[in-house]
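Example 3.2
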Amino acid sequence: ANRLGLARWLFDPRHPLTSRVAVNRWWELYFGMGIVETLEDFGVTGAYPTHPELLDWLASELLRSGWDSLAMQRHLVSSATYRQD
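Structure, written as tokens:
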């Protein structure tokens, strides 16, 4: 009904969409292509994730860390995947 209610809904752990979108954007920033190709559309008309388990795991790690965006980005750039040519 108000901005506080919207913020609580967006960041509720039972609502994983926000964390998935955040992780997907960082993935696209560092790897050049998101896990979900349509960055702006996670809905029914959007693309399906190429690796849904990875997206879910990264999103859950972001939630587990208390939304520590720096730690998540550090995790991405220190991964073996990032170090590959």
